[in-house]
Design brief:
The complex is a heterodimer of chains A (376) and B (97).
Chain A (H helix, E strand, L loop, with lengths): L9 H14 L6 E7 H9 L10 E8 L1 H4 L2 H11 L4 E5 L13 H6 L4 E3 L3 H10 L4 E8 L4 H14 L4 E7 L2 H10 L7 E4 L1 H7 L5 H5 L5 E3 L4 H16 L5 E3 L11 H10 E3 L2 E4 L3 E4 L3 E3 L8 H4 L15 H5 L31 H22 L1
Parallel strand pairs in A: 1-2, 1-7, 3-4, 3-5, 5-6, 7-8, 8-9
Antiparallel strand pairs in A: 10-13, 11-12
Helix pairs in contact in A: 1-11, 2-15, 7-12
Chain B lengths: L4 E9 L2 E9 L2 E6 L13 E5 L2 E6 L1 H13 L3 H10 L12
Antiparallel strand pairs in B: 1-2, 1-4, 2-3, 4-5
Classes of the chains: A alpha/beta (376), B alpha+beta (97).
Chain lengths: 376, 97
């Protein structure tokens, strides 16, 4: 149990938690999905579940970019990296994500030139520094990250830099939410909307969720109080039988989003007809690729890639966990074969993945409690 | 991946309007301002940074809150590692292998 006084504003947290209990109808079961992996991490880290009545279930959404990336795409990127000319550059989050022949880090150990960058702009810089090599940036992320890749590509084009390309795996959040709402085995009552994606896309793109699907959405910040306040917002709406988009994270998220970022994305990217998501399958118009005018910097056009669809390890139930049908610990591999130290599925790799978050906070806590009680 | 890091703009270059030097808890690095070109920050402003790009202007109070949140989430170290890595600095693994 998390003690309320460990929080920064314990009285406000207590009041908000009490308000949640007051608003929740004891005869009703609520399934609220937090879309963003950052929220999933915060919920486990702060033990927020302990502050909620048992009839409020938080369902962890698909908003963890490395978690939803199908293994075949990792294999494709690493296939390009086999070319000794190529430097494979990616964010640190990607390094331990397993492909069929191992993770990027394991490929590095085998002599493949794999480098961590913290910014797509630094992958470009790497290309400038290595004119006799080709730097391929393995791009992942939602709309939070895609504008930075877009601007980097615009800079590469302006410089006429030929030894740089992007292997684009950018995905968009709205079609994933649509797929979840269309899925017959998932009943979601309301959404906690992603904070940082919304700084780019704003709040307008969520309006159909309220209008057409009658589900409330609260775009939320990442502090414990932010998340609890967002739960209050959606519960109030559910109680009043309303559905609106509310912006709890006004201090950072403008309703209209970031126009400069949206312009950069529109200049460089177009929607793919469909893209495969781990756990959710193929979703129409859910990912970005480079426009024809950026073909020179498009790794998928410059290199021959296997493009083989790879199924997840049979025993791993990442798909069911991603859809919220199973809780992380209900997967057969959880905590035994699949741990943050030795991840089999991507949900165990990223700190934003629900399995890693569950393992680090819930599982270790439970293990500690049972070891203490066995000593006692 | 959702990490957004607060920093203060400490230096701007008149000849490079897309670059700012930002200070994150004492670590200074150049970040790209391309995503804020509709309302560029001035020296002293606070911004949220994601993968080397400033993505929104925020108040000082919110910047301090955000740093506290990162600390509480156990992500402050990763955030500082990220900032230190901007510009390919202090990233040993980027040396020729």
């Amino acid at each position: 149990m998390k003690f309320v006084d460990e929080f920064r504003e314990p009285e406000v947290i207590s009041r908000t938690a009490a308000e949640i209990r007051r608003l929740a109808d004891p005869h009703r079961h609520y399934r609220i999905m937090e879309v963003c992996g950052g929220h999933t991490h915060a919920i486990y880290r702060f033990g927020l579940k302990d502050l909620l009545p048992s009839n409020i279930e938080l369902i962890h959404g698909p908003g963890c970019p490395v978690c939803v990336l199908p293994m075949g795409r990792i294999d494709d990127g690493l296939a390009i990296a086999q070319d000794p000319q190529v430097i494979f550059a990616a964010f640190g989050d990607m390094m331990r994500v397993p492909g069929t022949q191992g993770s990027p880090l394991e490929h590095k150990a085998r002599g493949i030139d794999v480098r961590i960058v913290y910014s797509p702009a630094d992958a470009l810089k790497l290309a400038e520094k290595n004119p006799d090599r080709h730097v391929m940036f393995f791009a992942i992320g939602f709309e939070t990250t895609a504008p930075s890749t877009a601007l980097t590509l615009m800079r590469a084009k302006a410089q006429g830099l030929g030894n740089f390309s992007v292997f684009c795996n950018h995905v968009t959040i709205i079609p994933a939410i649509r797929a979840i709402l269309d899925s017959p085995d998932m009943r979601i009552d309301a959404f906690i909307g992603p904070g940082h994606v919304s700084t780019v896309i704003g709040c307008r793109p969520y309006e159909w969720i309220a209008k057409n699907e009658s589900r409330p959405v609260a775009v939320s910040g990442f502090e414990p109080l932010d998340i609890l306040q967002s739960i209050v917002m959606v519960l109030r709406q559910l109680k009043a039988d309303e559905a609106r988009i509310e912006n709890q994270y006004k201090r950072v998220v403008p309703w209209e989003g970031n126009r400069a970022a949206l312009r950069a994305m529109a200049e460089v990217f177009e929607l793919r007809p469909y893209f495969e998501w781990r756990g959710l399958g193929f979703i129409s118009q859910s990912a970005l690729r480079l426009r024809e005018s950026y073909a020179t910097w498009d790794a998928e056009r410059r290199f021959v890639i296997p493009g083989v669809r790879v199924t997840d390890p049979k025993a791993a139930q990442c798909g069911e966990v991603l859809k919220g049908v199973l809780k992380p610990h209900q997967c057969k591999l959880f905590g035994n074969e699949c741990t943050p130290e030795h991840p089999i599925g991507a949900l165990m790799v990223s700190s934003e993945g629900s399995c890693a978050a569950y393992f680090n906070y819930e599982h270790r806590k439970t293990a500690m409690v049972s070891s203490i009680s066995s000593v006692a | 991946m959702c990490l957004a890091i607060p920093g203060q703009v400490v230096e701007l270059y008149p000849d490079q309007p897309n670059i700012a030097v930002i200070d994150v808890v004492g670590v200074r690095r150049k970040v790209d301002l391309g995503l804020l070109q509709d309302s560029l920050p001035v020296e002293g402003d606070w911004v949220l940074i994601h993968v080397g790009f400033a993505m929104s202007k925020i108040s000082e109070e919110d910047a301090l809150d955000q740093m506290r949140t990162l600390r509480a989430l156990g992500e402050a170290e990763a955030a500082m590692q990220e900032v230190q890595g901007y510009g390919l600095e202090n990233t040993e693994n980027l040396e020729e292998s």
